[in-house]
């Protein structure tokens, strides 16, 4: 038997699924049809965007496999949830453990009392984010080289949210190499020489990048209840069917919304209080340091993914410092062991008076000139 | 049967028309994902693939009749987010192959040899770069041509060829002749 024939026999016993097995997926798609028809796009559908859109904001909510509920059970629950907010998933199945709930409550109180500095006309809120994650590769029959890369971006949100938003997505950079001797490999694939390295520069009214509506991309803060119980059920409704579990996905939704840095104080507080009602949430590290900032890590273990998903908050301000994913088991044939941080992301916000010039809704390749008087693209390349 | 491009064009006016693509391709796409990353993940990836495709249908090149490469490309991107699940699936294949069920048949030696070969192949598959594995498995399990793989992964066909060559070396196998396996000779002579 030749190798190709043999390869084709591998897992050839996996059968095509039945119509019944595919029914939940079809149901979700049909709901999307209805949503399109009614022109009402929920925040939960925000992340059905371009797969090339690798911002964590846009990928995190749908990153995990659905598990924990049977599909049939989940869709039965839709009916219950739609029927009444009083019978939602949130609030009656337990919640975060007491220590985590106390930290979240303290953070929520702080968030309420924290006054956002208002943006003046022409100013922008700059949300700088870093997303460091593990990747690997192999050349010929050599060893697998595991290393970490960093994807950074800066999002410029105008004082008038209907004006142009600007988003700079920088090229990936190697952070460190986990496999001894793998530095040359990482350098070949992600050259450290910055000359000619292109960022992606995007510009779109109301942040409607990649052809998506603003609300579907960033969420509609106005639609989100401020009552934590109602808000949690709102979140479950919009994330149902995504993620490894409804509870894990709800936590990711909360992190996604906090990460934007533009949620009003009452919503930030409600989000943190909603997190206190998510079962399985615990304090995983009370002195977690992320990119130089220290806070409290609160998270859940997603056993299906062998990951612990954590959000790190500053309890004294209610501010989200970042998120991380920690391996709870070793990854076979890699240098990743239990306890290793598989990825982390951090956010920082600042008020600035200028955003880079140029850009399109789908992005252009751009070598940025960072000088204040020439803030924008020096050269543009092909997309 | 309407071409896929016609279905997508119609779905721009009538969203529900997009359901036709689901009926055509959801089952084979689910099977492909399940072979790579396991059955439970396949449910989620299949669902997500069609939701993403529906959202992005305006970006589909209506000059292409066949939506299958586009859909499998989206699924491939989604599989990348589940690296652990894929590694586990391939690892379980190795384990299964390493535990042959011995019997008294005269061909037991051949059977054990075959099992060892499966184990070796599963290990090589797991250890190869994901970009090479994408190409190889779209070819071997998805029955894609090189051109379809290029469309699917949005890469030049020359890159497909070089990745396939590398994957072939890793598998230590003879050239994977497209002429033989897909009956489309024009791809083999393409030097792009």
Please supply descriptive tags for the structure shown above.
heterodimer; A: 383 residues; alpha+beta; 12-stranded antiparallel beta sheet; 10 helices; B: 192 residues; mainly alpha; Rna Polymerase Sigma Factor, Chain: A; 2 domains; disordered C terminus
In short:
With 383 residues, chain A is an alpha+beta fold.
| Succession of helices and strands of chain B | HHHHHHHHHHH
What is the CATH domain class of the largest domain in chain B?
Mainly Alpha
Oligomeric nature of the chains:
heterodimer
The percent of residues in helical segments of chain B reads over 70%
Overall domain count of chain B: 2
Helix run count of chain B:
11
> Taking Cα atoms only, what radius of gyration of chain B do you get, to the nearest Å?
19 Å
Which whole number gives the mean pLDDT of chain B? 78
Radius of gyration of chain A from the CA trace? 22 Å
Which ranges of chain A are low-confidence, i.e. pLDDT below 50, for 5 or more consecutive residues?
39-87
Helix vs. strand class of chain A: alpha+beta
Intertermini distance of chain B: 32 Å
Number of strands of chain A: 12
Order of helices and strands of chain A: HHHHHEEEEHEHHHHEEEEEEE
Beta-strand content estimate of chain A: 25-35%
CATH-level-2 architecture of the largest domain in chain B: Orthogonal Bundle
Shape of chain B: elongated
Number of strands of chain B: 0
For the terminal residues of chain A, how far apart are their CA atoms?
A: 44 Å
Which two chains touch over the largest interface? A-B, 59 and 66 residues
Mean pLDDT of chain A: 75
């Amino acid at each position: 038997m030749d190798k190709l024939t043999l390869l084709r026999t591998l897992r050839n016993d996996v059968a095509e699924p039945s119509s019944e097995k595919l029914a939940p997926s079809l149901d979700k798609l049909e709901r999307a049809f209805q949503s399109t028809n009614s022109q009402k796009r929920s925040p939960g559908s925000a992340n059905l965007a371009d797969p090339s859109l690798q911002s964590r904001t846009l990928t995190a909510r749908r990153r995990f496999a659905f598990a924990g509920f049977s599909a049939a059970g989940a869709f039965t629950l839709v009916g219950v949830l739609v029927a009444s907010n009083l019978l939602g998933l949130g609030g009656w199945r337990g919640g975060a453990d007491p220590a985590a709930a106390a930290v979240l409550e303290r953070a929520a109180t702080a968030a309420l009392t924290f006054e956002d500095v208002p943006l003046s006309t022409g100013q922008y809120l700059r949300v700088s984010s870093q997303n460091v994650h593990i990747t690997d590769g192999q050349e010929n029959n050599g060893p697998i080289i595991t290393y970490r890369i960093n994807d950074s971006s800066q999002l410029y949100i105008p004082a008038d949210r209907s004006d142009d938003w600007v988003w700079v997505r920088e090229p990936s950079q190697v952070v460190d190499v986990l496999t001894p001797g793998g530095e040359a490999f990482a350098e070949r694939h992600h050259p450290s020489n910055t000359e000619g390295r292109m960022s992606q520069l995007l510009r779109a009214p109301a942040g409607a990048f990649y052809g998506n509506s603003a609300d579907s991309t960033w969420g509609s803060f106005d639609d989100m209840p401020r009552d934590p119980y109602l808000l949690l059920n709102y979140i479950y409704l919009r994330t149902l069917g995504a993620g490894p579990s409804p509870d894990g996905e709800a936590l990711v939704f909360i992190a996604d919304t906090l990460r934007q840095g533009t949620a009003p104080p009452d919503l930030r507080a409600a989000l943190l209080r909603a997190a206190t009602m998510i079962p399985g949430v615990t304090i995983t590290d009370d002195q977690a340091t992320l990119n130089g900032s220290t806070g409290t890590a609160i998270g859940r273990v997603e056993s299906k993914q062998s990951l612990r998903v954590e959000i790190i908050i500053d309890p004294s301000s209610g501010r989200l410092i970042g998120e991380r994913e920690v391996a709870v088991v070793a990854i076979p044939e890699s240098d990743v062991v239990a306890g290793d941080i598989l990825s982390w992301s951090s956010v920082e916000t600042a008020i600035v008076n200028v955003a880079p010039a140029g850009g399109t809704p789908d992005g252009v390749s751009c070598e940025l000139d960072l000088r204040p008087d020439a803030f924008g693209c020096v050269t543009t390349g092909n997309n | 049967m309407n071409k896929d491009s016609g279905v997508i064009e119609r779905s721009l006016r009538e969203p529900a028309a997009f359901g036709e693509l689901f009926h055509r391709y959801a089952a084979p796409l689910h099977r492909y994902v399940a072979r790579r990353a396991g059955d439970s993940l396949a449910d989620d990836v299949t669902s997500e693939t069609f939701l993403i495709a529906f959202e992005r249908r305006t970006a589909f090149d209506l000059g292409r009749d066949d939506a299958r490469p586009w859909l499998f490309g989206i699924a491939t991107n989604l599989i990348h987010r589940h690296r652990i699940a894929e590694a586990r699936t391939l690892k379980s294949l190795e384990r299964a192959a390493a535990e042959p069920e011995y019997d008294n048949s005269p061909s037991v030696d051949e059977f054990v040899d075959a099992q060892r070969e499966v184990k070796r192949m599963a290990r090589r598959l797991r250890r190869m770069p994901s970009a090479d594995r994408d190409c190889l498995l779209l070819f071997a399990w998805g029955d894609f041509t090189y051109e379809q793989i290029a469309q699917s992964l949005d890469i030049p066909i020359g890159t497909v060829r070089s990745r396939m060559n590398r994957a072939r070396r890793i598998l230590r196998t003879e050239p994977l002749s497209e002429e033989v396996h897909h009956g489309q000779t024009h791809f083999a002579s393409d030097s792009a």
